[in-house]
Design a protein that fits this description.
22% helix; three-stranded mixed β-sheet; 264 residues; single chain; binds citrulline; L-arginine/glycine Amidinotransferase, Chain A
C-alpha cells in the first residue's frame, strides 16, 4: 500500500497538570488518576520516545486545562510540510490550541501553519496518517465542517483525506492505529469497515480494546503495558522493536499512547 514514510525526528509532549484529576472521562468507574503516578508514567513515556531516536520537546503543564497532556488533539502535522492547528471539539479543551501554537511556530513558519476555524471542529486523535492519506473520524469531536477544511488544507500539499463514519468510540485512533508496512491494529466498530479491508489487520479483541492504541515510532512499536495478547501479536509480526509503557493513569481519562504526543 504506502511507502514507509520518513523517520520521525521530533515529538512534542506536554506535562500533565495536577488538575488532570478533573479531566473528561467516559469511565469514572476506573477512579481518578493518581497524579504522582501519572508524572512517573509520563517520565517513562518520554524516555521511551527518546529511545526511538527522536528529539522530545516538553511543554510545561497548564493547570487551566485538565486534559492538556493529550497534546495529540491540538494539531496534525504533515511531516516536513505543514502543521494544522486543530479546533478541539470539547469546550473545556478548546483553549489548548493556543497553548500549542508557539510550539508549532518553532518548527514551521506562518505560511506553513494552517488552522481549523469555527464552526469547524477537529481533534487530532481523529486523524490517522497512512503515507499520503489521512483518515479522519467523523466523531463527536470532529464535525463535517472541520473535515471539509482539513480536506482542503491537505489538498494544498497533495495529500488525500478519507472521512470515516463512527458512532461508538471517542476518537478514530481509539480503535484503529497504523503501524506502517500495511499493518493495522483494529478493534470494535471499525472491524468490518470496507475502508480498512486492504490492510493486514491485527484484530484486537474487546477484552484488550484499549491496546488498539499503540504507536509506531521509527520501527519501534510502543504497546501499553498489561495487554499480553496485543503485545504478542505485534511481536509476532517479527519486524519491530517492541516496548511497553504503563499508561494506567491516562486510561482513566480515555487517553492512550498516541494521545500523549505529536510525532513528526
Ligand atoms: C478527552 O476526553 O478529550 C480526554 N479525556 C482524552 C483525550 C484522548 N485523546 C486522544 O484520544 N487523542
Amino acid at each position: 500500500m504506502s511507502q514507509l514514510k520518513d523517520k520521525f525526528k521530533n515529538v512534542i509532549v506536554k506535562r500533565p497538570a495536577a488538575s488532570m484529576v478533573d479531566g473528561i472521562t467516559s469511565a469514572p468507574e476506573l477512579g481518578k488518576p493518581i497524579y504522582e503516578k501519572a508524572i512517573l508514567q509520563h517520565d517513562a513515556y518520554i524516555e521511551a520516545l527518546k529511545s526511538c531516536g527522536v528529539a522530545v520537546t516538553v511543554c510545561p503543564k497548564n493547570e487551566d486545562f485538565p486534559d492538556s497532556c493529550f497534546v495529540e488533539d491540538t494539531a496534525v502535522i504533515v511531516t516536513g510540510e505543514i502543521a494544522i492547528l486543530s479546533n478541539p471539539g470539547a469546550a473545556s479543551r478548546n483553549g489548548e490550541k493556543l497553548e500549542m501554537l508557539p510550539y508549532l511556530e518553532k518548527f514551521f513558519d506562518e505560511d506553513h501553519i494552517f488552522k481549523i476555524q469555527s464552526p469547524g471542529t477537529m481533534d487530532g486523535g481523529d486523524v490517522m496518517m497512512v503515507g499520503d492519506t489521512y483518515y479522519i473520524g467523523m466523531s463527536e469531536r470532529t464535525n463535517r465542517e472541520g473535515i471539509r477544511q482539513f480536506h482542503n488544507i491537505l489538498a494544498k500539499v497533495g495529500k488525500k483525506c478519507i472521512p470515516v463514519p463512527m458512532t461508538e468510540m471517542l476518537h478514530l485512533k481509539t480503535g484503529v492505529n497504523y503501524l506502517e508496512h500495511n499493518n493495522l491494529l483494529i478493534s470494535g466498530e471499525f472491524l468490518h469497515y470496507p475502508t480498512f479491508k486492504d490492510f493486514n489487520q491485527i484484530v484486537v479483541d474487546k477484552s484488550e480494546g484499549y491496546a488498539a492504541n499503540c504507536i509506531w515510532v521509527n520501527e519501534t512499536v510502543i504497546v501499553p503495558e498489561g495487554y499480553p495478547n496485543v503485545l504478542k501479536a505485534v511481536k509476532d509480526l517479527g519486524i519491530y522493536r517492541v516496548i511497553t509503557c504503563d499508561t494506567s493513569e491516562y486510561k482513566k481519562l480515555d487517553g492512550g499512547l498516541s494521545c500523549l504526543s505529536l510525532r513528526f
